[in-house]
Amino acid sequence: MDVVVQVSPATDILSWVLVVAHRVGNEGVAIFFMNLWAIWLSGNMLVFEGIRRGAREIVDMAGRLLTDYTTALQDFKPTIDSMQIKWHPPPLGSFKANVDGALFLESRSAGIGVIVRDSAGRVIATTAKHIVGDFPANVVEALGVHFAVQFVRDLGLQSIMVGGDNLEVINAINSKEIDLTALGLILDDVQDTTIEHYGTITFGHTRRERNKVAHGLARNAQNVEGSMVFGSCDGLLCIVFDMNTAVLWNPSTREYKRLPVPCSSGRKSSLFGYGFGYDSSIDDYKVVRICPSARQGVPMGAELYTLKTNSWKKIEGITFDVLFMDRLDRGSFANGAMYWWVIAFTFSKDEYDSSSKILRFDLKAEKFKLLPPPRHIPKNLLMNLGVIAGFLCTGRDNHGSGIKLWRLKDDGVKQMWSKGVAIGVNRCVLPICYPICYPKMGEVLMHIIRKGQDNIVLCLCNLDDTTLKTQLIHVPEFWSDATTYVESLVSPNQCWEEKVHLEL
C-alpha cells in the first residue's frame, strides 16, 4: 500500500507523524521509522566499514530488526525488587500501639485509628474514633496520640511504645520546650497522662509504610457507627444508632419504637444535631434533626418528627448554617424548646460571619432562633449545655479557680442569661463541663473533664459553700456523655396506636 502525505513547509515533524499514524496506524509508523534507522545504519556502515547494502537488503534488515524488537517486548517481564517493609516488634513483655489520623474535608471532621500488638506481633486490640472539627493535620495526629495513650491505659497495659508517622508531633511530645499553641496544649496533656501512668510509655516515629493498618482504621472511622442517647423526656430515651437510625425507648417497660428514615438520610454529612422533647400544646413528643450544609453560604437543613403522625417533615425558612461540638450533638430540652450550643454561620450578599450562639427551636411554633451566649464568652468557643431545675445552664472554667455557672431565663419571648455560683473544681479541661441535674436542694451533679487526672468524672458539688463534695464516677473513655431519666409508664407506641385504631 502506497501512502502519500503532503507536508507544508510549516508542518513540524510531530504533526507529520500524527498525520501518518492516522493514515497507516501505529504499525505503519513503526515500520517507517525502522526503515529510516536502517538507512542511517547502512550509511554509517558504508562510511566507516566500506560495506555497501542495496535497497532490498536495507528493507529486509529493517523488517528483521522490528520483528526482533516486538518479540523482545512481549517476552520482557521486568522484576522490581520492592523494599521489604517490616513492622518492628517491641521488646519481650512490652506492647506497641500504632496510631494515625485521617482528614475528611467534606464533612469537616477527622478519624483516628489505633492498633495494639504484643512482642510476638499478635493483635491485642484495635479502635477507631470519628471526631468533628476543622483540624490541622498535626492536631489530628496529636489527638490520635492522646486517644492512643488513654486507650492502652484503659486496657491495663504497663510497658507501652506508641508509634506515629508524624515526626513533628513525636518530636514535640519528646521535647521539654513549652508550647502554648493548640498542638502544644494537647501534647502537654499527653505528657501529664504519661507521668501518671503506673507503667512506662515511650513515643517513637514510625515510617508511613509501617503504619498502614492504623491509617486504614483512621480512614474507616467515619463509617464506625456507635450509639448515643440524645434526649430524655418523661421516661423516654431517644437513641441514635447511626446517622439515620433512631429509636424511642422506655427502659422501665423495655418498650421501644423505631423511627422512620428521615427525609435527609441521603445528605452527605457526618454532622448531625438532634433534640427530643414534649410539646404540651398538642400533647405530642417531637424529635428535631439538624444537618449542617458543610458548604459555605448554604443554610443548614432541618426536619421534625412527631410521634402522633409517625413521620418527618422539613423545616423551612432557615437562613444560617451551624457547626456542632460533636458528630451527633444532643440538644437540651427546657421551657418548651430545644437548645444547642453552636458556631453559627450567618451570611448575606455583603458579609459572612461566624460566632458562638445558642440555637433555639420552639417546639410549638416550630421555628429556629439564634440567641447570644453568656457575656465574656470567646467568639468561636464551643461549650456544653445542661438543664437543672427547668433552667438551661452552662459552665466554664473561672480562670483556674473553678467552674462558673450561668442559667438562661426564657419566657418564650425574651431570653436573658444570669450568672450563678462558682464551684471550686480545679484543672478543668474546657469547654467540656456542664450541669446534669439537682439531686436535692443545695447540690448539683456536674459532668467534668479534669486535666491530668482521671479525665471524665461525675461530681456532686455543694452549692452552699461552692465546693466539690463528692467525686462519684471515673469514666475512662474520653468521648463520653451522661444523661438522666425518670421511671415512667409512657409508651413510645401509645399515641401512634390510638391514631391507627381511630382510622380503622
What does this structure look like?
Helices cover 23% and strands 38% of the residues. It has 504 residues and is α+β, with helices and mostly antiparallel strands. It folds into three domains: 59 residues; 127 residues, Nucleotidyltransferase, domain 5 (2-Layer Sandwich); 276 residues, Neuraminidase (6 Propeller), CATH 2.120.10. α1 crosses α2 and α3 runs parallel beside α5. The longest helix is centred in the N-terminal third of the chain and has 37 residues. The chain is elongated.
Topology, please?
Elements: H1 13-49, H2 55-75, E1 95-104, E2 109-118, E3 123-132, H3 137-154, E4 159-164, H4 167-174, H5 182-196, E5 200-205, H6 212-219, E6 228-233, E7 236-242, E8 245-250, E9 255-258, E10 272-279, E11 284-291, E12 301-306, E13 311-314, E14 320-323, E15 328-330, E16 332-334, E17 337-347, E18 352-362, E19 367-371, E20 386-388, E21 391-397, E22 403-410, E23 415-423, E24 428-437, E25 443-450, E26 455-462, E27 467-475, H7 494-503
Parallel strand pairs: 1-4, 4-5, 10-15
Antiparallel strand pairs: 1-2, 2-3, 6-7, 7-8, 8-9, 10-11, 11-12, 12-13, 14-17, 16-17, 17-18, 18-19, 20-21, 21-22, 22-23, 24-25, 25-26, 26-27
Q: Identify the CATH class of the largest domain.
A: Mainly Beta
Described by strand count, sense and barrel closure, the largest sheet is: 5 strands, mixed
The number of domains is 3
- Strand order within the widest sheet? 3-2-1-4-5
